[in-house]
């Protein structure tokens, strides 16, 4: 038979191991070749007892020359055994190999040497073959899982009517690889230190001026510009102390971008003789931004001339005017102030303006190099750089989901370590003070970061037409891992008291889950997927109601000391108002809609109690209440018309469009606008009433006393604010639906099921035979409380 140059029969391909990039042994041979040859040698019978003619021609030649083939075979076998033992030997990590110490790393945990030195335990040397093979196996397993997913998807499409409905966009979604929940982020390996190079650096700074600047960590800090014109008038000190305290109890919990002891010291300097004349403009801008955000947590007028929102808008306008766009020498205070202005505008329901200022904060932070772990910095400055970056990162993810915009920060351009989850008073210039084991750490930002880190993956997943069950299960496992990494009071199975101030950070994960699950509510999804989406969203809403009910319990007597301990004795209502946000209001709105559609009125009333407590503190919350009242009107019509069963509502396109909420405000997720007029045709077409235009002209200024534009279209008019009836009307409507549900369950069945007709067997029915009761949906159960339904007696 003809053989090619390789010695194999013609027409046969090379062995599989020659096409793979398997790890190699020290001698340069492929490890797969070693294992295959070892198995072949050990399994074949010995040729020592056979005749010379039974040997291959090459071995007969060796035997004729006086060299025993058995000697060659045994020596080769011993060499293969030695190579096999070397290949199976556990390698050492890079650090242990360089230090020549024993490495005790496993496949799932780093070695003790790297853990004690806070180094990344990695295996990148050429001789580390075992870890390389493990990585290959993991990659193959991931590819196999993805292939199975695509096969199942194609099979389901074939069963549903052929390949015409194949979701090509879902198949084009890249394989889901979620980030590590607690990653061991390590600083990138930099170039070698250039010693005795100061004169070169000096020349580059001098003669590179006007062409480029040194990288952020190596820029010479210049003196921040002070006021050349009269500085802005400082508010009264008592009002400032009140607003600063409110800021500390609200925004600072989730976004601790200010070192509080240092900030208090600078405020004292600003109110010393001389005022702001000696203070940098960037710090004054930050100061007024803090005051503006402090007004978000109050319903009381701070002065006799301005309402709270006008007072905050005035402070925000002062901060924005001080932040000149012509500034070339940026500082971290510019990034902080821009972030706080974005938060303030977003909480005032001016989301487009908030998005623009967020872009400014991201660009300033990247210009300062906050997105890279550099240094070494002083302890306080280094910790603040991490906190500011992760606060901007978290706000970018949250706002992107809220307004349906692209992410501004690329995960590939971020290698910053997580901030320390301790209060500011423990961060001192000499180092971070170790807290006692019983101390409850500041978990606001620390609890949000693991959630927002997978938002970029979530955004890519949401681009698919529908999300497969396999992908949803992968996310569910990841969500469970996140909860496991958080403190016990964040878990859904816990029934103990929950501080209302923790709700924003606790519910961040529920918000992202809701965004994922509701994606399959789209009209482009199959009916079974839409039903499953309703079920999953209902589960999130019920867990949200459970978190809220835990905040209504009696708090424990003993409370660990923290910066916020003096606020723990306040009422539930005050605690809720101090930490409320637009994100919380929108999430409660989505939960109430889905719970009412699914007839879980008890959980809906619990969520309603929190929305009612927030009241008019957030303009978005008022708009949400108006939308809920409209939805309940339509739902009541369906129920009274006989179309209120789960089966009918799950197939009612109009009700599904209403319950989808702000999905219809995103181009990629909406479906109701298909076939609608766009552009100039829409503007020149029949006018659509958006409210009382006279009211808009009379109240044209969104906030009195502030240099802001006319009332945005997203803010309700005075007439629209009054006409929906308030939260009491919603409470009565849900209570009425609950009573009607209880009555329907208690009523006898409208008809009897007739027994199946069987001509071969006569069935004699007794006159008092029991009737078969018509089955009731399992989810259509209500509480057995008194006839009067209200939020107070439901909880």
From TrEMBL:
GO terms for molecular function: DNA binding; DNA-binding transcription factor activity, RNA polymerase II-specific; zinc ion binding. Residues 1-99, 215-234 are annotated as: Disordered. Signal peptide: none annotated. Pfam families: Fungal_trans, Zn_clus. It comes from the Eukaryota. Residues 89-99 have a biased composition (Basic and acidic residues). Residues 29-51 have a biased composition (Low complexity). The keyword Transcription regulation does not apply. Residues 65-78, 219-228 have a biased composition (Polar residues). InterPro entries: AtrR-like, XnlR_reg_dom, Zn2-C6_fun-type_DNA-bd_sf, Zn2Cys6_DnaBD. Keywords: Coiled coil, Metal-binding, Nucleus. GO terms for biological process: DNA-templated transcription. Residues 130-157 form a coiled coil. Residues 92-123 form the Zn(2)-C6 fungal-type domain. PANTHER family: MISCELLANEOUS ZN(II)2CYS6 TRANSCRIPTION FACTOR (EUROFUNG)-RELATED, TRANSCRIPTION FACTOR PDR1. This is Zn(2)-C6 fungal-type domain-containing protein. It comes from Lepidopterella palustris CBS 459.81. The lineage of its organism: Eukaryota, Fungi, Dikarya, Ascomycota, Pezizomycotina.
């Amino acid at each position: 038979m003809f053989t090619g140059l390789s010695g194999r029969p013609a027409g046969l391909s090379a062995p599989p191991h020659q096409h793979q990039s398997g790890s190699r042994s020290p001698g340069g041979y492929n490890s797969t070749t070693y294992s295959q040859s070892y198995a072949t040698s050990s399994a074949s019978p010995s040729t020592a007892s056979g005749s010379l003619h039974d040997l291959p021609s090459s071995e007969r030649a060796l035997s004729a020359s006086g060299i025993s083939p058995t000697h060659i075979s045994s020596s080769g076998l011993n060499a293969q055994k030695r190579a096999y033992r070397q290949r199976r030997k556990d390698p050492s990590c890079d650090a242990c190999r360089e230090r020549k110490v024993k490495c005790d790393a496993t496949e799932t945990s780093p070695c003790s040497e790297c853990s004690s030195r806070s180094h990344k335990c990695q295996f990148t040397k050429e001789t580390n073959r075992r870890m390389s093979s493990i990585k290959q196996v993991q990659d193959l397993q991931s590819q196999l899982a993805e292939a199975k997913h695509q096969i199942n998807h194609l099979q389901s499409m074939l069963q549903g009517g052929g390949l015409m409905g194949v979701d090509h966009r879902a198949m084009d979604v890249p394989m889901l690889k979620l980030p590590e929940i607690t990653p061991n982020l390590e600083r990138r390996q930099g170039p070698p230190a250039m010693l005795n190079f100061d004169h070169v650096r000096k020349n580059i700074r001098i003669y590179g001026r006007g062409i480029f600047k040194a990288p952020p960590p190596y820029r010479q800090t210049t003196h921040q510009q002070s006021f050349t014109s009269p500085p802005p008038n400082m508010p009264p000190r008592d009002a400032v102390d009140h607003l600063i305290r409110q800021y500390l109890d609200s925004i600072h919990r989730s976004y601790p971008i200010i070192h509080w002891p240092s900030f208090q010291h600078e405020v004292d300097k600003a109110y010393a003789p001389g005022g702001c004349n000696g203070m940098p403009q960037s710090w004054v801008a930050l100061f007024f931004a803090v005051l503006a955000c402090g007004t978000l947590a109050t319903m009381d007028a701070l002065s006799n001339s301005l309402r709270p929102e006008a007072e905050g808008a005035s402070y925000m306008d002062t901060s924005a005017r001080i932040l000149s766009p012509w500034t070339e020498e940026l500082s971290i205070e510019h990034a902080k102030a821009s972030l706080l202005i974005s938060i303030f505008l977003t909480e005032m329901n001016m989301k487009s303006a908030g998005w623009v200022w967020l872009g400014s904060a991201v660009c300033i932070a990247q210009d300062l190099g906050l997105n890279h772990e550099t240094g070494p910095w002083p302890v306080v400055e280094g910790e603040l750089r991490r906190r500011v970056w992760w606060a901007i990162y978290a706000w970018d993810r949250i706002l992107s989901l809220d307004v349906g915009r692209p992410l501004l920060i690329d995960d590939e351009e971020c290698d910053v370590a997580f901030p320390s989850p301790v209060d500011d008073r423990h961060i001192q210039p000499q180092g971070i003070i170790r807290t006692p084991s019983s101390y409850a750490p500041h978990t606001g930002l620390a609890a949000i970061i693991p959630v927002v880190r997978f938002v970029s993956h979530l955004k890519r997943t949401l681009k698919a037409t529908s999300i497969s069950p396999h992908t949803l299960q992968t996310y569910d496992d990841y969500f469970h891992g996140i909860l496991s990494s958080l403190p016990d009071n964040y878990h859904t199975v816990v029934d103990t008291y929950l501080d209302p101030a923790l709700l924003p950070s606790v519910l961040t994960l529920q918000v992202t889950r809701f965004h994922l699950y509701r994606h399959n509510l789209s009209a482009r999804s199959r009916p079974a997927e839409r039903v499953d989406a309703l079920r999953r969203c209902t589960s999130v809403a019920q867990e949200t109601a459970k978190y809220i009910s835990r905040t209504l319990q009696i708090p424990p007597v003993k409370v660990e000391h923290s910066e916020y301990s003096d606020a723990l004795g306040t009422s539930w209502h005050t605690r809720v108002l101090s930490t409320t946000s637009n994100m919380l209001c929108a999430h409660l709105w989505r939960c109430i809609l889905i719970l009412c559609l699914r007839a879980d009125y008890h959980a809906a009333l619990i969520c309603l109690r929190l929305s009612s407590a927030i009241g008019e503190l957030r303009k978005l919350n008022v708009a949400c209440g108006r939308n809920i009242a409209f939805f309940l009107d339509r739902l009541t019509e369906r129920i009274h018309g006989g179309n209120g069963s789960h089966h009918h509502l799950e197939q009612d396109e109009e009700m599904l469009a209403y319950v989808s909420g702000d999905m219809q405000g995103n181009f990629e997720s909406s479906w109701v606008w298909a076939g609608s007029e766009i552009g100039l045709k829409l503007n020149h077409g029949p006018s659509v009433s958006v409210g009382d235009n006279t009211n808009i002209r009379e109240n044209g200024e969104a906030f009195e006393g502030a240099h802001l534009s006319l009332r945005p279209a997203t803010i309700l008019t005075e007439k629209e604010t009054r006409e929906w009836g308030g939260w009491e009307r919603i409470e009565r409507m849900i209570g009425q639906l609950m009573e009607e549900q209880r009555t329907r369950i208690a009523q006898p069945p409208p008809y009897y099921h007739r027994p199946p007709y069987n001509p071969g067997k006569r069935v004699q029915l007794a006159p008092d035979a029991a009737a078969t009761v018509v089955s009731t949906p399992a989810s259509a159960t209500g509480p057995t409380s008194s006839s009067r339904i209200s939020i107070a007696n439901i909880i």
